[in-house]
Amino acid sequence: MKEKATKWRESNKEQVRLYQKEYRIKNREKLMAYDLTEKHKNHRKLWWVRNGKQYCVARNKKKHFLAMQIVSNQKVPECCRCGCKDSRALEINHKNLGGRKENLRGRLLYDAIISGKRKTDDLEITCRVCNAAHYLEKKFDIHYDITFKGLGLSQKERAVVRREMFGNGKFQ
């Protein structure tokens, strides 16, 4: 029965659209009142309690990655200093410092970059280590030479190195 109704809706989309439009016009007050009911409010609150954090975290990760793609002009962003491509370590860096003075931080900065409201000519992509080194170079004139070696090892090779360093889960 459900499949039959779905097929009918698919073949009569225009008729369904017109019916829904007429229904919304006739029952506007009823529909608006439903939006304000406690049941509806509680349902939204309950959904937010159950799913809100995971939803926001996933959305922010996507926005962060998209903003980094725009700043770096690359499909896979990488650190402009050492070449690190691990997205967990990458950050958007202000070339001339002053990132804290800017009112746009975190998600607001990502939104501004994505929408084109924020120019990216004074931004670059760096890993956390290079970002800290950049700060020290600009602030205190201390210079570092940083090379990223993580890309050269396969997963098996990293496991061997970890075992050599830490043994079987215990520090030696």
Explain what the structure shows.
By secondary structure, this protein is mainly α. It has a domain of 110 residues. It is 59% helix and 6% strand. The chain has seven helices and two strands. The protein has a two-stranded antiparallel sheet. The longest helix is centred in the N-terminal third of the chain and has 35 residues. The chain is elongated. The termini are far apart. The model has no long low-confidence stretch (mean pLDDT 81).
Write the layout of secondary structure elements.
Elements: H1 2-11, H2 13-26, H3 28-35, H4 38-72, E1 90-94, H5 107-115, E2 123-127, H6 128-140, H7 155-166
Antiparallel strand pairs: 1-2
Q: Find the structural class using helix and strand composition.
A: mainly alpha
Order of helices and strands: HHHHEHEHH
Shape: elongated
Helix content: 55-70%
Estimate the mean pLDDT confidence: 81
Helical segment count: 7
Strand order of the largest sheet: 1-2
End-to-end gap: 67 Å
Q: Unreliable runs, pLDDT <50, ≥5 residues?
A: none
Main beta sheet: strand number and arrangement?
2 strands, antiparallel
Short description:
This protein is mainly α. It has helices at residues 2-11, 13-26, 28-35, 38-72, 107-115, 128-140, 155-166, and strands at residues 90-94, 123-127.
Characteristics:
mainly alpha, two-stranded antiparallel sheet, 2 strands, 6% strand, elongated
